[in-house]
Amino acid sequence: MTTYRGYIGTYSKGDSKGVYTFTLDTEAKSLQQLDVAAELKDPTFVAVTNTNKLYAVMKEGSEGGIHAFDLDPKSGSLTPLNRNITSDGGPCHVAVRSDNLNALSANYHSGSIFSYQLKEDGSVGEILSSVTHEGSGPNKDRQEKAHAHFSGFTPDEQFAVAVDLGTDEVILYKNEKGQLERHFTLNVAPGAGPRHIAFHPHEAYAYIMTELSNEVIVCEYNASLGELTEVQTISTLPEGFVEESYGSAIHLSSDGKFVYVANRGHNSIASFAVNELSGELTLVEIISTEGNWPRDFQLDPSGSFLIASNQESGNMTMYERNQSSGHLTLIEKDIPVPYPVCVVFVQDSI
After folding, report:
1. Angle formed at CA 276 by CA 275 and CA 282, multiple of 5 degrees
2. What is the CA radius of gyration of the chain?
3. Where would you tag: which of 151, 223, 259, 294 has the fewest CB atoms within 10 A of its CB?
4. Taking the model in full, what pTM does it have?
């Protein structure tokens, strides 16, 4: 039997308390021991590290920032370390470098990216650098100004990468000791509304999920130059679907053979096979999430299961994944979690 520890970030609405934890039993093929790990306001996105730290975005009144915790993978408990909050109340994403020296947050409402120092004990230090995007897009409701939705690192961590839904940009920053310096900007199709980006684990490709156009933009990534070049755009919705839907999360299988994305409104997970020579995608299937508004999902460390979070219906859905074909098979659809958003796993089994 192999068991993995997972965490869920939520919106603080209804009965939601904050960050939840659970275990995945790969033999029983079930999620177990679901419980509150930390009470926190709007920890909508969380990140875990290989040193058993958890970082959560948070809000407090009109302010916001990131909160650091020690995590116990056996019990799932979270012990607060500290927090760093500012007057910017819109953090929506957090990512941590593999050396655990630097964290980034994306702040939706201000269009800003913050670079934080991380101390030796895992606590959050000072803000080393910040940048604020400027611009707008053609969608008057969602692109009236910059809206940073993702910040993370390129695979070699030479660059920080930011995705801005409001300005239709993916921006690479030189990241020298936490200091952000704008290096390269990819302008995607006006009105696409890029939301997240995922890099191929061992090939020079990157995949951008758009929220407003429900597409994946496939790019070649030149690591030496720090540049992205578009090679394909493919819809994540069934042909002929014209109702309202918004793209959300994007993740790759650890072998790089498949890309998975979520559609809110259509309420589905779309699976794509990756062409190993070009990086381009071919649709495998689109499957219902058995709930409303799939905000995120995650593949477990074994690659055998996918867990989706349906924000508005308050349920998690579990699938078994065929690692050869990429197909998903529904196992369980009524795992109750109030307003679930982000799903992450500790990589080592417990």
Report:
1. 10
2. 19
3. 223
4. 0.98
